[in-house]
Each structure stands twice: as structure tokens, then as C-alpha cells.
């Protein structure tokens, strides 16, 4: 998980913090393993090891929900967590849990005023790398 100096408090940090908790629960699989499983489970989702690294380190946020959802499903599968828990109060319209919470955090990042920065070739929003930051994974 990036430090507060690497990733300031705000919607992006909350999004990364939530995803990173599933990464930890999945016993920290390799980025290559995650990307391969993403392609297997959801061929329409874009996800390379670099996309996974940049997302989990907070350097970028995928603009496609299918990419985020695929990443979440893979991490949940590896952690043996149901990404779509049962409805709350037996009301089929009210759901709280993994997928809904991650989607709300993802939307908060994309809707935020500070997230209009540049995009990489996969369409992922990026933020500038902090000074002195290396391209090496933080894990």
C-alpha cells in the first residue's frame, strides 16, 4: 500500500486502499498471475501486469469498469471471498458489499475534480509519478 506521501488522502487513496485489502487477502499474488487470470475470466477487460501494478500503487485508475471488476473478481477468487454478497434486509434492490463498494469508490475517483489528468494508451487515467519514484513494483 502506498504511503500517504506517495498517495495523498482522498478518493484515489480510498479506492486503492480497498483494492489493496483484497490483494492482501489473496496472499499477494504476482502481478503476472493477476493479469493472466484477468484475461482468462474476462477477455474484454484490459489488464496487463503494468496496469495492475499502477492501479494497486495508485499511479493510475482504469476508466473501464470491466477492468476494475475483473481485477476485483480475480483478487476475490484467490482470497475465497464472494464479490457479490447477499442482499441486505432481503431487499433485492439494496446491496452492500464488495462489488458495490468498489464501484462506488471507483466512481468517486473518476468523478473527482482532480482526476482529469492524462491517460495512457489503455485509456487509464494517470497521475504524475512523484519525484524520485522508481518503476519498480512496491510489493
Question: What features would you describe in this structure?
Answer:
There is one protein chain. The chain is mostly helical. The chain contains five helices and two strands. The protein has helices at 11-25, 31-41, 49-56, 65-79, 98-111; strands at residues 60-61, 125-126. It has a two-stranded antiparallel ribbon. It is globular. The model is unreliable at 115-119 and 128-134 (pLDDT under 50).
Strand line-up in the sheet with most strands: 1-2
Which quaternary structure do these chains form?
single chain
* Largest β-sheet summary: 2 strands, antiparallel
H/E topology pattern? HHHEHHE
Give the CA-CA distance, first to last residue: 8 Å
User: How large is the share of residues in beta strands?
Assistant: under 5%
Number of helices: 5
Shape: globular
The computed structural class is mainly alpha
Helix content: 40-55%
Query: Quick check: average pLDDT?
Result: 81
For the secondary structure, the number of strands is: 2
Low-confidence stretches: 115-119, 128-134
The Rg value, from CA coordinates, equals 15 Å
Write a concise synopsis of the structure shown.
With 139 residues, the chain is an all-alpha fold. The chain has helices at 11-25, 31-41, 49-56, 65-79, 98-111, and strands spanning 60-61, 125-126. α2 packs across α4 (65-79).
Amino acid at each position: 500500500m502506498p504511503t500517504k506521501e506517495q498517495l495523498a488522502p482522498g478518493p484515489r487513496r480510498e479506492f486503492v486502499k480497498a483494492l489493496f485489502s483484497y490483494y492482501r487477502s489473496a496472499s499477494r499474488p504476482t502481478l503476472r498471475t493477476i493479469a493472466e487470470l484477468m484475461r482468462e475470466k474476462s477477455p474484454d477487460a484490459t489488464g496487463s501486469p503494468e496496469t495492475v501494478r499502477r492501479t494497486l500503487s495508485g499511479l493510475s485508475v482504469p476508466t473501464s469498469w470491466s477492468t476494475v471488476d475483473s481485477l476485483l473478481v480475480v483478487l476475490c477468487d484467490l482470497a475465497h471471498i464472494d464479490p457479490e454478497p447477499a442482499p441486505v434486509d432481503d431487499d433485492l434492490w439494496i446491496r452492500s458489499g464488495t462489488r458495490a463498494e468498489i464501484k462506488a469508490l471507483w466512481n468517486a475517483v473518476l468523478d473527482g475534480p482532480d482526476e482529469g489528468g492524462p491517460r495512457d494508451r489503455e485509456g487509464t487515467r494517470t497521475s504524475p509519478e512523484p519525484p524520485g519514484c522508481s518503476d519498480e513494483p512496491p510489493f
